[in-house]
Specification:
Chain lengths: 115, 114
């Protein structure tokens, strides 16, 4: 596809359930990022993948959150035992460059609602 | 740690009037700075970026921003607002010491009145 694709676009789950959010980056982009957008916290960084390097997990809020990137392409963000405070829009972005000036292209996000 | 402050969470302008969105950053090294726009139910779209080439940066849709190191500011302007400019705008700084992760300001929602 032409842009970053995220699925599902909306996810409603019950407290305590696990969820998986998927991101398909732009083809050829080596860098992939996850951010979370919530009313209380604004936009915050979660995790960053660059090529085959170990991911930067410094933004993950708890050990209930994990992410993987298979084959240097598709990424899955997993939230275990969801809590109501996990309700937010989860945004994925990808970038072609390795330098800090590289433009990040964002997907439309997954809106997660935890009941 | 880097931080970004956007003054004013909501701005209301009349169609045809100047749009001015304020952004101040805190960074220990010369930063890379970005403005993104978010329309309802969409992801973020890049308006423009500053990477130390020129202090006045022109972006899409008639927006521009000026980097002022002495004021640690990167304010976004557009001379004449259009109804289609109604959206939320985010200023961000790139962490050069830790890959490319972006630190965002709190966002400014722009309302354009006819």
């Amino acid at each position: 596809g032409a842009g970053v694709s995220q699925s599902p676009s909306n996810k409603v789950t019950e407290k305590g359930k696990d969820v998986e959010l998927r991101c398909d980056p732009i083809s050829g982009h080596t860098a992939l990022y996850w951010y979370r957008q919530s009313l209380g916290q604004g936009l915050e960084f979660l995790i960053y993948f660059q090529g085959n390097s170990a991911p930067d997990k410094s933004g993950l809020p708890s050990d209930r959150f994990s992410a993987e990137r298979t084959g240097g392409s598709v990424s899955t963000l997993t939230i275990q035992r969801t809590q109501q405070e996990d309700s937010a829009v989860y945004l994925c972005a990808s970038s072609a460059g390795t330098g800090a000036s590289g433009i990040q292209y964002f997907g439309a996000g997954t809106r997660l609602s935890v009941l | 740690a880097q931080s970004v402050t956007q003054l004013g969470s909501h701005v209301s302008v009349s169609e045809g009037a100047l749009v001015l969105l304020r952004c101040n950053y805190s960074s220990s090294v010369p930063p890379y700075l970005f403005w993104y726009v978010q329309y309802p139910n969409q992801g973020l779209q890049l308006l423009l970026k500053y990477t130390s080439a020129a202090t006045l940066v022109k972006g899409i849709n008639g927006f521009e921003a000026e980097f002022k190191k002495s004021e640690t500011s990167f304010h976004l302007t557009k001379p004449s607002a259009h109804m289609s400019d109604a959206a939320e705008y985010f200023c961000a700084v790139s962490d050069r010491a830790a890959g490319n992760k972006l630190t965002f300001g709190g966002g400014t929602r722009v309302l354009v009145k006819p």
